[in-house]
Amino acid sequence: MPVTRALFDQVMVPNYNPAAMIPVRGEGSRVWDQDGREYVDFAGGIAVSCLGHCHPVMVNALTEQANKLWHLSNVLTNEPALRLAKKLTDATFAERVYYANSGAEANEAALKLARRWALEVHGENKQEIIAFHKGFHGRTFFTVTVGGQPAYSDGFGPKPGGVQHVEFNNLESLAAVMSDKTCAVMIEPLQGEGGVVPGNEAFLKGVRELCDQHQALLIFDEVQTGFGRTGTLYAYEQTGVTPDILTTAKALGGGFPIGAMLTTAAIAAHLKPGTHGSTYGGNPLACAVSEAVMSVVNTKEVLDGVKQREQWFRDALAKINDKYQVFKEVRGMGLLLGAELNDKFKGKARDFLNAGADEGVMVLVAGMDVIRFTPSLIISETDIAQGMARFEQAVAKVVAAHA
């Protein structure tokens, strides 16, 4: 039976509309499709493949663990999970770790913990959660309701209550609705899906102050910004703000599914035995891979290298823009960058993504107006140069088509 894109339409639920080409192999920042055609990968599986494809450190960790132990129930713990938790707590503000399999699950745990903490510490009137328009926190019904994009949560019946949305980077908007009923504020330090929009420092500090004032927890969703993506292990380190709860996934496993919620011992104490759980959360395979990824990512060499690579991307995009005048601005932190299209090309982001694929470079979009770049954190200068040369060809084609 031939495995083609047409087979997708016959056997898969149609909630995705994948590209015509099917990748079959990857190495570093290069991917090859069924026809042997090569692509430079600036997408990184949406900020997941932080060490590129098939990095030997990851392959070795997975192979070694696969020959030892794959799965245990949570009646037992395991060595990789404990080693990784120790490394995560040593490297961050956190004292306790809860494992899940994805960012949505990590966020679900964070929201449930915040509600349980508020109930037990402050009573049942303190249960409101505030989040931000255009935010994205996952696709479970709770997390998608807290996310500020109604298009993703509408049409599934009554939504979980006690959730409000305010304007990102607008402190007055938040202050106006916060009260003693607020149990938590959930925020991305840099909105990813919402268009690669960084939270400005004064705003983030103001959010922290409002949470303190109203005795509410501050939850940082670092699913996309975390694990080296912005040039520090977690983005909060660059903001001057420490959250009460932090969620992490995507790059945490470098491509192997794992998520985690990090918090303090005092807050964590409210998830007593039986209050929350995950069958696969903290499994030895995922934790062994994540531990190996962390051994590479959480080094001065790699984290400093992210800032260097950011500059290479910005320089290349500036050169393309000087020639073709397509971007209004390039924004973001580290290797989470968004090139916003100007008014002339408004709504055409997907045209650039498709043209890029035709030219042999994989990019992403963040909405209709922003082209997003989330490559490997260790992508080479050569791969950036070649990928950008291909991306320039794609831009030239789109510009010509819209002339």
UniProtKB/TrEMBL annotation:
Keywords of this entry: Amino-acid biosynthesis, Aminotransferase, Arginine biosynthesis, Cytoplasm, Pyridoxal phosphate, Transferase
Chain residues that bind N(2)-acetyl-L-ornithine: R139, S278
A Gene Ontology molecular function term of the record: identical protein binding
Keyword RNA-binding annotated: no
Binding of pyridoxal 5'-phosphate, residues: G103, A104, F136, D221, E222, V223, Q224, T279
Catalytic activity: N(2)-acetyl-L-ornithine + 2-oxoglutarate = N-acetyl-L-glutamate 5-semialdehyde + L-glutamate
Pathway connected to this protein: Amino-acid biosynthesis; L-arginine biosynthesis; N(2)-acetyl-L-ornithine from L-glutamate: step 4/4
Further comment found in the protein's record: May also have succinyldiaminopimelate aminotransferase activity, thus carrying out the corresponding step in lysine biosynthesis.
NCBIfam families: arg_catab_astC, argD, PRK01278.1, PRK05093.1, PRK12381.1
Stated name of the protein: Acetylornithine aminotransferase
Lineage of the organism: Bacteria, Pseudomonadati, Pseudomonadota, Gammaproteobacteria, Alteromonadales
Gene this chain is encoded by: argD
